[in-house]
Amino acid sequence: MKILTINPGGVSTKVALYEGRTLLWTEDIQHAEAELKGFTSVLGQFEFRLGVVRAKLAEKGVEPGQLAACVGRGGLFKPLHAGTYRVDAAMLDDIRQGRTKADHPSNLGALLAEAIASPSGIPAFIVDPVSVDEFDHEARLTGLPGLERRSLVHALNVRATAFKAAEKLGRRLADLNLVVAHLGSGFSICPIRAGRIIDVNNANDGGPFSPQRTGTLPVTQLVELAYSGKYPTAKALNDALTKKSGLLAHLGTHDLREVERRIDAGDATAERVLRAMTYQIVKEVGAMSAALDGHVDAILVTGGLAHSKRLSGELQRRLEWIAPVEVFAGENELESLAMGAWRVLSGQEQPSVY
Fold first, then answer.
1. For each of the chain's 354 residues, which pLDDT tens digit applies?
2. In a domain, 350, yes or no
3. Does 353 reside within a domain?
4. Alpha carbons 275 and 279: distance in angstroms, whole number
5. Residue among 335, 265, 322, 268 at smallest CA distance from 295
6. Fewest CB atoms within 10 Å of the CB: 114, 115, 295, 330?
7. What sections of the chain are H helices per DSSP?
C-alpha cells in the first residue's frame, strides 16, 4: 500500500513515499528565489511545482499507477471538521477561484495530489487542514458582539500526535481527554475531548508569545499602538505582530537553539525571556485543562521546540501535577499526511466530504 505525500511550503516542496506506515524515502526539494520570483501568486506556481514532483518520482522510479493514494497538505479552506478529505471538484474549484483565506503554498497541496492521482484513477486526499473548526459554542464568543474567536490550529500535527498518544496508551482517541501543545514558529495549545479539538489559542491571536508572534497582548495598549502612527497600515501592524515579535523582537533571533547557547554563556536577558515564554505556555495549558473540567488523561508536547530538553523538561516538571506529560518532538507533517490516508485505506476511518 504505497502512499505519496506532498507538502508545499514557502521555498520548498517536501515529498515522501510510504509503504503503509513505513517511510521508504523522503526529499526536501528547495526552490531558489530566482525560480519563484517570476510568479505573481502562489497559485501560479502550480505547474512548476507539479513538474518538480513528477521529476522526483521519475528519478526514484515511481509510477503513479503503483500508488494506493496521493496526499497533499490541506490549505486555508472554509471551516471544516477534522479528518481525511477526498479531494473533489468543490475543493479544487474553491482553490482555483481564490475562495481561500489566503494565497498560501498549502493551497497547492490538493491540486498537486489530484494531478498526480487522477490520471491513474487513485484517490487524492488532504488531511486535517489548519481551518479545522470544532469549537464548542462557548469557546467562540467574546465580550464584543461582532468579534468572534476563530479556530486556526496546527491540526495536522496536533491530531497525529493525539493518535500516537492514544496508541501508546492502548486506548481509543475517542475515549481520551488530552491537552496538546504544538510548539513551532507559532503555538497551538488545545484541549481534545473525545477526538474533537474544542478550543485553541489561535497562534496569530492569543496564547503565549512564540519565536515570531506576540501571543495575547494588553488590549488597550494595542489600540493605542494601532493609532500611534508607528505602523502606517493594518498589514504593517499585522506583520509586526505575527512575523517580527516574540523571541525575535526580544533577542534578535527566533532560533531557540541560539537562545539556549546564550543562556549557557550567561546571558541573563535570554534566560529571563525564555522563562517568560515557558511561564505563558504553562499558563495556557492550565487554562485548556480547565476547559476539560480538569479531567485530563495526558498532556502532549510536540512541534519543533519540543526537541529542546531544557524547554520540554521544564514543561514536564511544571505540568505533571495536572496529568502525565508525554513529549513527541517534531512536526512530522509528511508522516501525519500518510497516516491520515492510511487510516482511510485500512478502513479505520471514513473519508470526509468537503
1. 999 999 998 888 999 999 999 999 999 999 988 888 889 888 999 999 999 999 999 999 999 999 999 999 999 999 999 999 999 999 999 999 999 988 889 999 999 999 999 999 999 999 999 889 999 899 999 999 999 999 989 999 999 999 999 999 999 999 999 999 999 989 999 999 999 999 999 989 999 999 999 999 999 999 999 999 999 999 999 999 998 999 999 999 999 999 999 999 999 999 999 999 999 999 999 999 999 999 999 999 999 999 999 999 999 999 999 999 999 999 889 999 999 999 999 999 999 999
2. no
3. no
4. 6
5. 322
6. 295
7. 33-36, 46-60, 89-96, 108-117, 137-140, 155-169, 219-226, 234-243, 247-251, 256-264, 268-291, 309-319, 333-345
All residues at 6 or more sequence positions from 255 whose CB lies less than 8 Å from its CB, including other chains? 211
Residue bearing cell 498549502: 106
For residue 132, what are the contacts with CB-CB under 8 A and spacing of at least 6? 79, 80, 81, 82, 151, 153, 155, 159, 197
Cα–Cα distance, 74 to 276 (Å, whole number): 33
Residue 56 and residue 66 in contact, taking contact as beta carbons nearer than 8 Å: no
Residue with cell 496526499: 71
Which range marks the domain in which residue 317 is found? Answer: 155-330
| CATH number of the domain bearing residue 249 | 3.30.420.40
- Interacting residues of 33 by C-beta distance below 8 A, sequence separation 6+: 11
Give the CB-side neighbour count of residue 146, counting CA atoms within 13 A. Answer: 1
* Lookup: cell for 208: 503565549
Is the domain of 326 the same as that of 338?
no
Residue 140 falls inside a structural domain: no
CB atoms within 10 A of CB 112: 27
Q: Does 300 lie in the same domain as 161?
A: yes
